[in-house]
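Posting here for the record, re: iron/sulfur cluster.
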Amino acid sequence: MKNPINRRTFLRVGAMTGLASGIPINALADNDMAKAAKEEGVKRYVTLGRTGLKISDISFGSSRLRNGQEHLVRHALDRGVNYYDTAESYTRGVSEVVVGNALKGDRDRVHIATKSHVGPDDSADQIMERLETSLGKLQTDYVDIFFNHAVNEVERLKNGAWFEFIEKAKRQGKIRFSGFSGHAGRLTDCIDYAVEQDMVDALLVATNFGEDPSFYEEVYERLTKGFDFVAKQQALPDSLARAKAKNVGIVAMKVLRGAKLNDMRPYEAAGATYAQAAFKWVLKNPNVDAAIISMTSTDDIDEYLGGSGGQAVSETDMELLHQYAQMTDMTYCRHVCNDCEGACPYNVSIGEVLRTRMYATDYGDFGFAKAEYQQLEHNATPCLSCDGAPCRDACTHNIKIADLCGLTHQLLS
Ligand code: SF4
Ligand code: SF4
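Prediction output follows.
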């Protein structure tokens, strides 16, 4: 039986064979299909800074991994992905269990990172207990990297118990390397502090073309005018360069900027996909070693890995990134930037509400979005009877908070 051809394979094969310019699909030879399938795998392994770990340049993020999805992890493994990132909190602990189930027979072929939210007052024993719970779920004796999760305050990095824990866990062979993950807000302060203190082997950092000042410079040089917004992470490139100079391994996340992939399909006729362009943008940065992305279907995995090995951003790639930025800039909530914190007198968790909106409208995952929305302690119910005045100017990214929060409530409640 011939392999079924999906749209993304068509786009990739089309780009290779000229198919997109008119050769009928059924004229595609099986060896072309085989070639395309092979090219969907990882094409480049990189050294993750001082850790020395050799990891796939595009690797497995598991923030949305659910029960029964071991096959996704296995699919990525079959395609050459050897770095798996999870966290104790992802899908309420299910993610670690699924990663553990899927990889238990292949532990020596892969690298696993997990995370725990360590506060400024947590004790070393508490952190150790959480690590051991994670190890149990992951069915392994050690993790390659243990991250302090979503650090946005330097105070959390100053907790002496963290150092005590790291030293002990390394000595006991339960972790090999340590670091922290961070998203926005005071991220650069945290990176600078950690690098000055020489306290991290690796960092997991939210970065993408839309937060990169050099993207906007390129757009002005290479594309059209009328592009008048500015990157919000002006200091991040310098912080990453300082970290790299100390040989800290750097993994990028949030590379797709909300991953509104379906909205980009009409613009991908030339064969490249938006996702692949976004990966290439991040991976061409000499201060970024690799990227992770939530992998939620086998089609997505194949598409994402089509960007592996690519560091040259073509004109077509730039046009896709430009198109995406124009389409989404006014609705993309950098949900952990939290610049709007405290703006709502009714305590709506604005960033969290908009995070669930992203799952529904960008990822198209309504089940997950609803489940997450239902868990929110302070959802957007008050937005239905509020005139929106208190939060009108609260977003530093010009998002219309009242409109989007109200719509999210209607969509997900
Ligand atoms: S619309 Fe009103 S209730 Fe909703 S987030 Fe804004 S201030 Fe809060
Ligand atoms: S609404 Fe704006 S300020 Fe608030 S978290 Fe999102 S991007 Fe940041």
